Amino acid sequence: MPRFPRVAAAMATAAGLAMAASAVATDRVVLSEMYTATWCGPCQAVRDGYDLMLNAHGDTFLPIQYHNADAYTVPWGASRMSQFYGASAFPTYWTDGLVSGVGGGGNGQQWFNYFTGIMNQRLAVAPEVTMQMAAEQVGANQWEVSCLVTLVPGEPGRTVRVYLLQVLDDFIAATPKYRNTFRQYGASPDLMLVPGEPQVVSHVFTLDSTDQANLTKVKFVAFAQDPSSSGPAQVRNAYSIAHPFPTADCNGNGVLDFTDIENDASLDCDGDGFLDSCAIADGSAPDLDGNGIPDWCQDCNGNGTADWQDILDGTANDCNGNGLPDSCDVADGLEPDCNANGLPDACEVTRIETWASDQTGPLSAGSALPWFLPAVPVADLDAPVVLDVTAKGDLGELFELLTFRLNGQNLGSLFQTDGTECGVLNRQLAIDPQAWNTAYALASPAVLEVVPSAGVSANDCAGSYVQMNLEVQVQGDADADDNGVPDSCEQADCPSDIDGDGTVGFPDLVEIIAAWGPCSGACAADVDGNGEVGFPDLVELITAWGDC
Predict the structure, then answer these.
(1) Is residue 295 part of a domain?
(2) Is residue 259 within a helix (H) or strand (E), and if so which, with residue range?
(3) pLDDT tens-digit series, residues 503-524
């Protein structure tokens, strides 16, 4: 049975270009900003909560602390909270520019639970923009920081204000929970984003002696927010990089890839922020004709639109996920089409299609991890949907488990009785196909969530994660010999092969004997097509005996 992998490299055309729904590449990072001061007693518990959040959710939660009225005050940060957000009390906190709160106290675990709840709500919302960052040292204490901002495919054009900042993490010796303390403002231009045209924001930051002495704790932060003179204003996504900073110079020419693309957009034909030459070199972009241009950026059907855009718009099908319209696969002889209907044969038979998620984490009770799925065909009711799960986490105790939900509907659980503490585990969850189809139809895009049970703690297993492979059998034409060609085509070439197994033999003889006599309707055993199964059909079968 044909298997069509729908992983990031294979699906870079239609999904991020589709990012294969790897909560991807289009992942959201949630920004939380706090107005604080060293002398603020109630702020301490909130800061402890931030510390726990960074330890457990550092890949998806990005806090910044702006000081005022103490030795660590920076005017821009103080005005950001007091003027933009109208904050007048300590602590005041805004998450993704939408959810605000005032007041502290309690303990760090309570604030961890509070921010985890808000983070999960925001992570359930697909991001509108993606962000990538890199930094290049341009002087003894100077770093040129660049951020590539791209509109997620399918999103309408929008204007965002992109902020570039520098923070210093955990550097105030007397109070070690001051995580991501704001140090300096860089830039905040407004960008008009349109599909397929990424834009770059750059700024040269000069680090002072404190930053230089704590270089391993320096971070550069970027976030894209709706342009406004005051909050609330939604943050569409955020990003940060820490020392040692990524340089993003894949072709080794001494120029950041972002800058290469900004200077010559033709170097990135599909607008995904990566140089075409590098994508071809590492195998993530096909170039079958060897002309140095990814195949999906070409116009094989001559309609004036790049192939990837045809596929993304739905004006061309790409059933096998190779980045080329099916019509071109057939016309160029890359795929057989025995019945001349414009579809590759392998896409017409019953087949298994697969998708792979990114590795994501950490695993912690109360923190669901979402996977935004791409378009998945209706599952064949004759075979279960299979979720192959690899996980590492705090799963060693009885009933420490992972539950899987599709659009809020429970699909089942794993590791409830057979887990280990911080070991790498692999299990498969077999899902009823009717239940899968029903749940999948409830929302678009569909969201597959991994929900750790109570007792699963990120603090008990450093580097916890989960990674999933989804297998769905899609119903199609019969293919008894599993060669990727519909039996109907093969039977046309070999009519005596009644059961379609590629060989004329005893099973076919049995079929003729069982159907002996006049046919009523379609009759596969009527080899000569005269409307009756009889001696002429038997002669045809004996003559064709053996492999077709």
Answers:
(1) no
(2) helix 257-263
(3) 899 999 999 999 999 987 668 8
If we measure between CA atoms, which residue out of 147, 166, 156, 368 comes closest to residue 237? Answer: 147
User: For the segment 154-181, what is each residue's pLDDT rounded down to a tens digit?
Assistant: 888 999 999 999 999 987 765 556 899 9
Rg of the chain over Cα atoms, rounded to whole angstroms, equals 29
User: Is residue 465 located within the same domain as residue 512?
Assistant: no
What confidence tier does 54 reach under pLDDT thresholds 50, 70, 90?
very high
Give residue 531's region: left, alpha or beta (phi > 0; psi -120 to 50): left
467: which DSSP letter? E
Contact 307, 298 (CB under 8 A): yes
Tally of domains in the chain:
2
pTM over 0.90? The answer is no
Backbone angles phi, psi at 280, to 5 degrees: -70, -40
Give a yes or no: residue 228 inside a domain: no
468 and 500 belong to one structural domain: no
- Domain range for 508 is 494-547
In tens, the pLDDT along 434-478 reads 999 999 999 877 899 999 999 899 888 988 999 999 999 988 777
Q: Are residue 378 and residue 463 in the same domain, yes or no?
A: yes
Cα 219-222-227 angle, rounded to 5 deg: 150
Indicate which CATH number applies to the domain containing 526: 1.10.1330.10
Is the domain of 469 the same as that of 498?
Answer: no
- Burial-class residue 541 by CB neighbours within 10 Å (0-12, 13-18, 19+): buried
Which of the residue ranges 9-13, 273-277, 415-419 has the most confident prediction, judged by mean pLDDT? 415-419
CA dihedral 58, 63, 64, 69 (to 10 degrees): -130
What local confidence, expressed as pLDDT, does residue 468 receive?
95
Same domain for 500 and 459:
no
